[in-house]
Design goal:
Two copies of one chain form a homodimer.
Chain A lengths: L11 H11 L3 E3 L6 E3 L1 H20 L3 E2 L5 E3 H4 L3 H7 L5 E4 L2 E3 L7 E3 L4 E8 L4 H11 L8 E10 L13 E11 L2 H22 L5 E4 L11 E8 L5 E11 L1 H5 L3 E3 L5 E3 L1 E8 L1 H10 L16 E5 L4 H20 L4 E3 L7 H10 L4 E5 L1 H6 L1 E6 L5 E5 L3 H26 L1 E3 L3 H10 L3 E5 L4 H11 L2 E6 L7 E2 L6 E2 L2 E5 L3
Amino acid sequence: MSKKLTTRAEDYSKWYNELVVKADLAENSAVRGCMVIKPYGYAIWEKMQAELDRMFKETGHQNAYFPLFVPKSLFEAEEKNAEGFAKECAIVTHYRLQTDPDKPGKLRVDPDAKLEEELIVRPTSEAIIWNTYRNWIQSYRDLPILINQWANVVRWEMRTRLFLRTAEFLWQEGHTAHETKSEAMAEAKLMNNVYATFAENFMAMPVIQGLKTESERFAGAEETFCIEALMQDGKALQAGTSHFLGQNFAKAFDVKFANKEGKQDYVWATSWGVSTRLMGALIMTHSDDFGLVLPPSLAPNQVVIVPIYKNEEDFTVISEVANKIASELKGKGISVKYDNRDTQRPGAKFAQHELQGVPLRVAIGPKDLENGTVEIARRDTLTKEIVAMDAISSTIENLLEEIQENLFNKALNFRDNHITEVNSFDEFKSVLENKGGFVSAHWDGTNETEEKIKEQTKATIRCIPLDISQEVGVCVFSGKPSKHRVLFAKAY
Amino acid sequence: MSKKLTTRAEDYSKWYNELVVKADLAENSAVRGCMVIKPYGYAIWEKMQAELDRMFKETGHQNAYFPLFVPKSLFEAEEKNAEGFAKECAIVTHYRLQTDPDKPGKLRVDPDAKLEEELIVRPTSEAIIWNTYRNWIQSYRDLPILINQWANVVRWEMRTRLFLRTAEFLWQEGHTAHETKSEAMAEAKLMNNVYATFAENFMAMPVIQGLKTESERFAGAEETFCIEALMQDGKALQAGTSHFLGQNFAKAFDVKFANKEGKQDYVWATSWGVSTRLMGALIMTHSDDFGLVLPPSLAPNQVVIVPIYKNEEDFTVISEVANKIASELKGKGISVKYDNRDTQRPGAKFAQHELQGVPLRVAIGPKDLENGTVEIARRDTLTKEIVAMDAISSTIENLLEEIQENLFNKALNFRDNHITEVNSFDEFKSVLENKGGFVSAHWDGTNETEEKIKEQTKATIRCIPLDISQEVGVCVFSGKPSKHRVLFAKAY
């Protein structure tokens, strides 16, 4: 391990970048804006995938796989969607390389291998999927279609940051087709709720469920539900979205069905997705100046055991005990690693596991053997305690639950303390500037006001919370009437 | 269900194509050569993935993720590899679309958004991965690196067929780095053996493990291990490969390490992969003229229960019994579906489950309730029997094991009956023409002879089996001396 991380107070953004790399989560690649997700980072993503996949299947969805490429003619069919993504598309134009006659050993694009129609590397898959659904749907009996896809997508972003905004990212995208508007709307809400449950129960990350304003909606959606989380620097992060697409894609791709009355009608649609961006959200919600902090439900190793020994004899005895504890914990479904490397000293191991956010560290030395104890260190509180060896597996089981809960509550307190109601634009700017977080304010409902506030403060409307109460007021910016508050914030 | 499948005898190739589509496994998409994997097909692929992933982790591998794109300069670094894939690459040249000034509502590639360096959509990831490994490896302490990636890859094939050869396909690719030649060679063998175990125990598909000849090797490999399976039409199918890459990629990307003696040395490499092509192999190994036949270990539904009833009253009582059986089976870890759709008659349900290869079908009617029996139909043998209801879950458990075994043995018999030793070129051609399968023949070891045999018969050397016995002979084609036989076949 090299020297310490930059602290959050010194430079939050630098702290994040360093942490991602030093904790072995991901790194930049030779391809502009594309990342390499390293094994430790990928193991966390796999845990997210497994739980989300379980939740999708439990709510009746099946996985499938659609092509990586979208022919340009399909891409442009739904105009708003196309317009929304046209400026950030990777475009395949050729299908062959040839030896470069001018440069021995080098290749060049074969000019004779130009595609008749360009292919867009999917930035999202509505177009290719709805073009496919057309052939799958004739009657109401073919509905609903409830499909999810795990895939990579590409959006040619100019400013990229590991996990938060990368040119290629991994995600899941659900695409569903329904008989009625109300069924599709219910699906979009349901999946947003699945995301919220996952974020809170699994990632220990509190989120606000809400609706996006028109200007922040997904291109091609009639309504976008979202979950918004708050990072420790007071900036909001959109962690997942679920779109009610109306009949827009059905109309663009001519997907009609015979309803129960035998009449032809356009199909209603939703789409919803979360991505490796969640890794960024996870990191920034819980981590501290010592490195990553992981909720036990997402930790590749929930427990590490580190032997403290001076000679081979001690090591042998300690290893016996450690292996016994490890197998006991595994029997309870707890993931545990016995870190018996002889290439590293205990101090270096401690530092590494701290940096990598292992929830519990168990140290066992010769004195512990004498006393029938072990030392347990919690990553979330950075506290240590000596506990009896004979009750260790239940102690650990309880501690893991406690950590999961503690991380959620800590993040929830922070979040709740950073929702500030303001009633004037001066107050609005002052809170944004000095405190950060969500600013709850009245807004007149116009794009124009939203845009002007953004220009002047860099804050955007993160969402109109689903549980917002009706409250007559006046817009903090324009003074025009407003029916309820909305949440503004600077955002990732 | 529409009309029957074309039979294998009528037109094997047509039978395959129809089966894939009618059994709802996959279909062609709007993108040339790219397929849509439908939920039922994808559920089978997910089962393959889960088992392979378990086996990879059990042998010490971790998953990670590397970029989809390979910059041209990296792509061409390992010359043989580059040459091997240059003719079938999808190439990204631009990163933005713009409104087409000549066609309202249409988009065109923005000529100002040309990439400085073209990006190749990965046909395989050695180049991007070895360029990354360079930064990860300094000393022998950093080795071995044992990484696998689940990903999509693109090879611009001209003639495509669902699952067997598609422009985009899903696969896993292992990429490992080692201190010594022998360790890398052992890894390549180990992973080929993992593939063989998976194919035989899980897919019930017998395979021959062998080495490829130079002309059939992976571009950039020094040795390619493979598993070769035999399809029912007598053609071989390469089902997985594992490559010993020597120091080729380490040299191309300058990946050196300090060995235990403190000297700098190039790292030794392997790579290995299986793909959605295995779906094609699975289908063609077991299926029949009635449709798909699935080994129980890969069946999304191992058992379906179909109620036979004339009135609502019968349906209620039967459903009660069916649900009880279903939950008993689920308790044993058996996947079961109670097909209680009221939109389909029992005959149609039977036909669908037969077409989709469900291993066991349980029918329950009013008479069964009276007699305390059910009817069980086996998909592999197409036989039915009446069994006692009270022992049903153990009966089914045993039957599933029996089916798994029976499918393997059936395929093994077929395969073993289709390995024919020949000692003259006339015999060679006659066996290929009239019987098909593997032809075991002496070969002089030259590319030239291999090439000529291919030209005249379309047969290639599938492999030099690992367990081949030394046997002095003469080449069937050239009459030159040979040390052992090799296996020829026409292949997919």
